[in-house]
Amino acid sequence: MKRVAQFIEFLVKKFIQLPLVDKWLNEHPKIHHQLNERLSFEKFTGIAFTILVIIFLYFISLFLGIVQDYLSHNSLVLADERIANLLYFFRNINLLYFFYFITLFAESTVVIILSIILSISLWVRRQRIYIFSLWLVLILGEGLAFWAKYVFQRERPALFMRTITENSFSFPSGHATAVVLFYGFLLYLVIRNYSSLKTKITSFIAFLLLVVLVDFSRLYLGVHYLSDVIAGNLLGFSVLILCIILTEWIISYKPKLIPNKIKSSQIFLLLIIAVASVFLVYGLTDSPVSKDKSMTAQEIKTEEVLSLFDKNILPRFTETLTGANQEPINLIIISPEACFEKDINNANWTSADKPTISSTKLLAKKAALNQAYSAAPMTPSFYDAKPNDFGFEKQTEKNTARSRHHARFWKTDYVTSSGTLYLGTTSLDVGIKWFLFAHSIAPDIDTERDLFVSDLKQTGVITKDLLVQFVIPTLGENFSGDNFFTNGKAVFMTFSDCTKNKQ
Fold first, then answer.
1. What are 391's strand-pairing partners?
2. Crossing angle, helix 2-16 and helix 19-27, to 10 degrees?
3. Can you give the pLDDT at residue 414?
4. Distance between CA 106 and CA 14 in Å, rounded?
5. pTM to 2 decimals?
6. Second label for 371, Cα 20 to 30 Å away, from 252, 294, 437, 459?
7. What is the residue extent of each domain of the chain?
8. Cα(273)–Cα(113) distance, rounded to whole angstroms?
């Protein structure tokens, strides 16, 4: 760090010595004096203070930007619900336990325990200025986060997504704020008290990793949106930098308050206690359990289905991550729940594997080698902010993972006497966009719709079908930038009851 400061000082001096700069500074002595004060390397109120103030202003401006995005429902906030639903779609019970453990590092109980222990240690070592700074950081930061929650009063994600109980409002995330405040303060102590550059860099990387993991844990556990945790981080960084400025200013003007050096054993012992505290709290609290999506079925008549779209109760188009319209719905199916997937499989359409690390790796391998993968995972698409519940595919004549017929479906919470209402779209993969790791989509989605319906008719599963003008003829673009066109028609079908056929 000393070498970095010396290099910066060298560059500043060379810049000031430039003829034009030197002349201008001599003509403006007051500005010259202020610049000397701001760029001084001799005292804290010089370059160090200037840089920290700039960093503080940067973080607080980013936080205010997130607030503005939230109030104006900008692109980030529009993506919030879809990201939450997507993570719910990928949820895994083992990862739930892991991220519940991680989130406890920023739990108020754990942070308070660690803060008390750290305060006692600092008091014994006569490093009391740090005690003042620590509690100022925590009280100010958490106080502002608590106050902001009740100002904005944003509801948390839907109840069925939450794996743990949280009773406060959502924006900003208190955990995302706390992890930056406390562990950021620990990082400050390490940077200030250790001369080893390796130790400082390692500590900084560990801090960033913990922040990212805690942030993601709040999303994965279903208790926060992405904008909540970003806002919490930014608020935490703003308060942390502000308190560091105040601490260093006090130390610079009160030499008697300069604390003793912190021993490595102090930090190491605290980290051990942190892990032990998390294990203790983890053992004393209810672990998260995977919860099934609980939808309240709403009974309607079959002839009322299309009126759901006319009344804008259900949207007519699928969406991108930010909520922009994509392909329109072109398949409307009423089917007994027990029969839906089975009947489509019987029409030679294979259920797609869920996108996991292993299935995605296998897809990449098969696509690179131009080999078949009949149940290859699909890129999720969104409808009414939810990723598709089902994905079906059929190999083309090329018989390769690069080219496949696709049908995506969303299960609604509407039920008729003949079964549950499902909505779907069709598409054809014709290649790979390697730079996006996404498929290129053929523009003609009507042909794919007709192929899907034709295959189902051959099985005899369709009892009623009707071709309806669902939207106006449309030219559009999907999330990956591929164009599509459609005549705007959708096929409204009713499936037979496969359970009765068995009997």
1. 408
2. 80
3. 92
4. 46
5. 0.66
6. 459
7. 82-284, 298-502
8. 9
